[in-house]
Design brief:
The chain is of the alpha/beta class and about 475 residues long. It is about 40% helix and about 15% strand. The chain folds into 2 domains: about 210 residues, YjeF N-terminal domain (Rossmann fold, 3-Layer(aba) Sandwich); about 260 residues, UDP-N-acetylmuramoyl-L-alanine:D-glutamate ligase (3-Layer(aba) Sandwich), CATH 3.40.1190. Keywords: ATP-binding, Isomerase, Kinase, Lyase, Metal-binding, Multifunctional enzyme, NAD, NADP, Nucleotide-binding, Potassium, Transferase.
Length: about 475
């Protein structure tokens, strides 16, 4: 999981990012002290504009307080510092005017760099969010560091190294030590990173287990994309009695950011669904129920939802079996509501991109297991997820999302969401996120968070007296990354 996601989720749990930066910088300073041979060792800290640079600035403060001679090189104009926490620590370091052991430099281009560096070098320039080729003056700083005989300490990851893949952008710092935070990044290896030391900076496990606003970082959109390139969702459902459910699912998908939604429904439900919104494309089945599936529509879609308002009858069961048999097992499909009564585990066990969204009763019936308290539910959902390759999203007071033994939890939502239709909204959001290129597991996690958050925002205005329709307008606000 990306560092920025974990940091934002920790903040959502009540831990300020400034505190995490302070913890990281202090731990970094302590490790540098243990590496230094004497207290007379000169320490040069090269700081970037992001959180890594802030960690370096905190470390500089603590090292000066310990009596070390420290020289800081900010590798950008101060007005270009990207992190507000780094700005705060830049202000602090510039207020340390009493100490003779601190020298601060701003490097606007490579001509501002020293000709050589010795002692201990701290690389706090680029962190886990590296993209593209390394630009000046950081490129020249990396060459300076690599050409020196100094002991090189990298902060979190050596600048230029992708911490996820382990690939080098085009040039990277060769570190003797890498002080990384919270957990070892999987792309780190001793060849580039040197000796790897992990610092615990106080991030609780909950920041990774519980879905939070940090997970919204996963949603990306190409600014040069065209109509249809950000997701085409197909909703299959509806019946004479339940005509509104597919519309709720489709409108939720649109509010969650996909480009196009098509609803395949019986002729009895089509007029009602069309009346909901002109934004929905409605394709009619010449029947009172979903008794056949248009596979051409399926193949043109980026993700499928089947179940909202479906109703259970023999012809619909036959159509569902046909879909599962004919669909490519790589096609993402969300199975919800009445479709969960039609599914058999044996038929879907090879579908890696399938998402099941049962409530507790549906889950027990589907997997023939029981359990009421959270710990037993986690145990059973984990076990059930190993029986299929796909994703299980067990809805409840705390949602449980699992795939192949991997587990996350979501606690957004409130008792007002027991109203009918909130599950249809959830399935639409999940399918929308999948169509926007999120992995089904991540889409299920984030979909549960957004759905619950939209419900929480609705409850702030309406109390618990709101409908699923009223929830729809809160989806975009629930998706805002603050």
């Amino acid at each position: 999981m990306k560092t920025e996601i974990i940091d934002r989720n920790a903040e959502y749990l009540g831990i300020p990012r400034l505190l995490l930066m302070e913890n990281a910088g202090r731990c970094l300073a302590e490790k540098i002290v243990s590496i230094a041979e004497t207290e007379n060792e000169k320490i040069s800290i090269f700081c970037g504009s992001g959180g890594n640079g802030g960690d370096g600035l905190v470390a500089a403060r603590h090292l000066v307080n310990r009596g070390f001679k420290v020289e800081v090189f900010l590798m950008t104009h101060p007005q270009r510092i990207r992190s507000k926490e780094t700005i705060k620590n830049w202000e602090i370091i510039n207020n340390m005017t009493y100490s003779d052991n601190l020298n601060v430099n701003v490097v606007l281009d490579s001509s501002y760099l020293p000709s050589s560096v010795d002692g201990i070098i701290v690389d706090a320039m680029l962190g886990t969010g590296i993209k593209g080729k390394i630009r000046e003056p950081i490129r020249s700083a990396i060459k300076l560091i690599n050409d020196s005989n100094a002991v090189v300490v990298a902060v979190d990851v050596p600048s230029g190294l992708d911490p996820t893949t382990g690939k080098i952008s085009d040039i990277a710092v060769k570190a003797d030590y890498t002080i990384t935070f919270h957990k070892i990044k999987k792309g780190l290896d001793t060849k580039t990173a040197g000796k790897i030391i992990v610092c615990d900076i106080g991030i609780p496990k909950e920041a990774e287990v519980f879905v939070g606003p940090g997970d919204l970082i996963r949603i990306k959109r190409n600014p040069e994309s065209h109509k249809g390139e950000n997701g085409k969702v197909l909703i299959i459902g509806g019946s004479p009695v339940y005509s509104g459910a597919p519309a709720l699912s489709g409108l939720a998908a649109l509010q969650a950011g996909c480009d196009l939604v098509t609803i395949l429904c019986p002729k009895t439900a089509a007029p009602v669904i069309k009346s909901y919104s002109p934004d929905l494309i409605v394709k009619e089945i010449d029947s009172d129920y979903v008794d056949k599936i248009d596979m051409e529509l399926v193949e043109k879609s980026d993700s499928i939802v089947i179940g909202p308002g479906l109703e259970e009858n023999p012809k619909t069961r036959k159509a569902f079996k046909f879909l599962i048999r004919e669909i490519d097992d790589t096609t993402p499909i969300v199975i919800d509501a009445d479709a969960l009564k039609l599914v058999e585990i044996e038929d879907i066990k090879d579908f890696e991109n399938i998402v099941l969204t049962p409530h507790l009763g549906e889950f027990k019936r589907l997997f023939k297991i029981s359990g009421k308290d959270l710990k037993s539910k986690i145990k059973y959902v984990t076990s059930a997820s190993k029986k299929i390759n796909g994703v299980i999203l067990l809805k409840g007071k705390i949602d449980i999302i699992a795939q192949n033994g991997k587990i996350r939890l979501n606690k957004t939502g409130n008792p007002g969401m027991t109203v009918g239709g909130t599950g249809d909204v959830l399935s639409g959001i999940v399918a929308s996120l999948i169509s926007q290129k999120l992995r089904p597991f991540d889409a299920a996690c984030l979909g549960a968070f957004i759905n619950g958050k939209a419900g929480d925002l609705a409850s702030e205005i309406y109390g618990y007296n709101f409908t699923a329709t009223k929830m729809l307008k809160f989806i975009p606000k629930a998706m805002k990354l603050k």
